[in-house]
Amino acid sequence: MLTLEWESEGLQTVGIVVIIFASLKLLHLLGLIDFSEDTVEDEMEMATVRHRPEDLELLEAQSKFTKKELQILYRGFKNECPSGVVNEETFKEIYSQFFPQGDSTTYAHFLFNAFDTDHNGSVSFEDFVMGLSILLRGTVQEKLNWAFNLYDINKDGYITKEEMLDIMKAIYDMMGKCTYPVLKEDAPRQHVETFFQKMDKNKDGVVTIDEFIESCQK
């Protein structure tokens, strides 16, 4: 639930928090992880994974997952996504299950675009692993870089007030009836005005990645 504290300071972190928790749910619903420790240990012991060893070795070097973890992730990914990729509609279906009280369509669209690093309309296993590696085990700097990419909707290297508003509205729409107290219709715009004033240090109408990281770290 949203609390009154979010009205003043905390909402800028909501996007990152939602990303992390929703990503865990995404893994669970895709069958990539189980929240039971015994099950995970059993999977590690019995994993017989179809993969190209050179690809997993490269991913192991590039990500923060072990080879066994990657094997389990790959096994589940291939079982649920035989084509080897996840499309945007799958993201939307998963998020609609996670946030049934709201409309998660727009947020799922933005998040899909953040995972789809090569912008080809699909998320491959490699895309998925690299994104999750940052979200779950990355440094603060890496997570903030990833979050900046999410907010930078048109990927031009800057966040505009309109882009931040679009993301904020999408978060509110996704939370739906889970918000308490009920927020006013213009609440997202008011939050954006407050955050943008803090982030846009040189008042040029856009937020750079340096401004974004500095503001979030403070």
Automatic annotation (TrEMBL):
Give residue ranges for domain EF-hand: 103-138, 139-174, 187-218
Q: Where found, per UniProt? A: Cell membrane; Cytoplasm; Peroxisome
- The name of this protein is Kv channel-interacting protein 4
Q: Which Pfam families match?
A: EF-hand_7 (PF13499), EF-hand_8 (PF13833)
Tell me which InterPro entries the record gives: EF-hand-dom_pair (IPR011992), EF_Hand_1_Ca_BS (IPR018247), EF_hand_dom (IPR002048), Recoverin (IPR028846)
Annotated source species: Pygoscelis papua
Keyword annotations of the record: Calcium, Cell membrane, Cytoplasm, Ion channel, Ion transport, Membrane, Metal-binding, Peroxisome, Phosphoprotein, Potassium, Potassium channel, Potassium transport, Repeat, Transmembrane, Transmembrane helix, Transport, Voltage-gated channel
Q: Which CDD domains does this UniProt record tie to the protein?
A: EFh (cd00051)
Annotated TM spans: 12-33
Name the Gene Ontology biological process terms.
regulation of potassium ion transmembrane transport
**One Gene Ontology term of the molecular function aspect:** potassium channel activity
Q: Which domain of life is it from?
A: Eukaryota
The family classification in the record reads:
Belongs to the recoverin family.
Gene (UniProt)? Kcnip4
- An annotated GO cellular component: voltage-gated potassium channel complex
Membrane topology field: Peripheral membrane protein
